[in-house]
Amino acid sequence: MGDLTMDFLRLMLMAAMLLTSLQGQAADAATAPAPTTHEVEFLRSADKACTDCHKEQVEGMHGKHGQATNPNNLAPVTCTNCHGQPSPQHREGVKDVMRFSDSFNDKQSVLADKQSALAEKQSTESYPIAEQNGVCMSCHEPKVLREALWAHDVHATKLTCTSCHQLHPAKEPMVAIPEKSRIKLCVDCHSKQHEAVKAAKANTTSGKEAQ
Length: 211
Known about the structure:
Elements: H1 2-31, H2 48-51, H3 63-67, H4 79-83, H5 103-112, H6 117-125, H7 129-137, H8 142-148, H9 151-155, H10 179-210
Helix pairs in contact: 5-6, 5-10
């Protein structure tokens, strides 16, 4: 009986010592400084491959896009976020990246002069409105745009965003535009639209008469 008691006491003592040791290790781990990690930073701009050729855009990323964070990857906005990845044939002029256009004025040019080589070039080189605006709306949510101004909904499927907005200006002309200036913009654009339609109809009529 006495031997059993002594064995039991020894086991209890060993368990207590083990517990004390584990508690000490846990306390040391809690107070120990976190290991330092090395953060890798890019030594060159993510846009360098683009700006090596597009030199006019070296300092071109101004305004909100220049300081913006891409909500999809939480990294700074780069050229390829909006324009896409170029192919190996990009330098040969291949249509492989997004080209944003002023679809309103392009459309008026085509309506006013359907025989013009420039009008034909604009109509064939421009990406569809839905594709251009889809790039913008991958970051700018339609609900937020709708709440900011009703005109976004009205024009979203008819005009490119870049018909009114600029991609990376020093100052975006549409931000905080006064109400009177906004109304004038509506009047000016829709007046041009009506004039272009009238001119197109006149050209069609004169062409038939000439035949």
